[in-house]
Write a structure and sequence with these properties.
Structural class: alpha+beta
CATH topology of the largest domain: Heat Shock Protein 90
Helix content: 10-25%
Radius of gyration: 22 Å
Order of helices and strands: EHHEEHEEEEEEEE
Mean pLDDT: 84
CATH class of the largest domain: Alpha Beta
Largest sheet: 6 strands, antiparallel
Low-confidence stretches: none
CATH architecture of the largest domain: 2-Layer Sandwich
Strand order of the largest sheet: 6-11-7-8-9-10
Distance between the termini: 22 Å
Number of strands: 11
Strand content: 35-45%
Length: 204
């Protein structure tokens, strides 16, 4: 699958790793502009996959691997969770009064398709799920530069959100220093010292 972006990270075998995985997924999909329905579904699926991997009986120093990828060709979001355990997990139909055992049933119900593959480059396995995600567009990479180097067409982070720069001009401050005024497509102009670092990214 031709992924537009491929994010991988590892988690320790601790209970707090499941919420950490959800937070990381939320950040990635948030940058892609994913809608609430996809965010909710993906978080449920990833949470179940990670929770199952954390329950696999392996040494505590063995980490859990997570990979998030999106394919523009297939319009799919792929979630992968790898562990060092053997065997092949199977869907178990839990009784109505059971509070556990529904993890893979949830994954199967929410996924376009899912499966299990040998773990790449190591022992164990990878459990994966694919979700339909036709409208995702990865955000461009963010970097930090001096305000004087910002150019029209870039986006800057200010007041907690991203703003596209429509124009840039320099002016002298009363103290004699140089200031930069960034004219934004929306909202008031941003006036900052020329050397102040700003988070910027190119227009998608």
């Amino acid at each position: 699958m031709a992924a537009l972006i491929d994010v991988s990270f590892r988690l320790s075998r601790r209970p707090r790793s499941a919420p950490r995985a959800r937070a990381a997924l939320h950040a990635v999909l948030g940058d892609w502009g994913a809608g609430g329905d996809l965010l909710h579904t993906a978080e449920l699926v990833l949470s179940e996959l990670v929770t199952n991997a954390l329950r696999v009986p392996v040494p505590s120093d063995r980490q859990v691997g997570v990979r998030i990828a999106h394919s523009s060709t297939d319009a799919l979001l792929r979630l992968e969770v790898s562990d060092a355990g053997s065997g092949r997990p199977e869907v178990r139909r839990a009784d109505a009064d059971e509070t556990e055992g529904r993890g893979l049933w949830i994954v199967e119900a929410l996924s376009l398709r899912w499966g299990v593959s040998p773990r790449m480059g190591g022992i164990g396995k990878t459990v994966w799920s694919e979700l339909k995600a036709p409208a995702l567009t990865p955000a461009p990479a963010t970097r930090e530069i001096a305000a004087i180097a910002v150019q029209a067409g870039q986006s800057v982070r200010a007041w907690g959100t991203w703003h596209t720069v429509h124009g840039v001009r320099a002016e002298r401050q009363a103290t004699g220093g140089l200031a930069v005024v960034l004219v934004l497509e929306e909202g008031p102009p941003l006036r900052v010292p020329a050397g102040e670092p700003l988070a910027v990214r190119a227009r998608p």
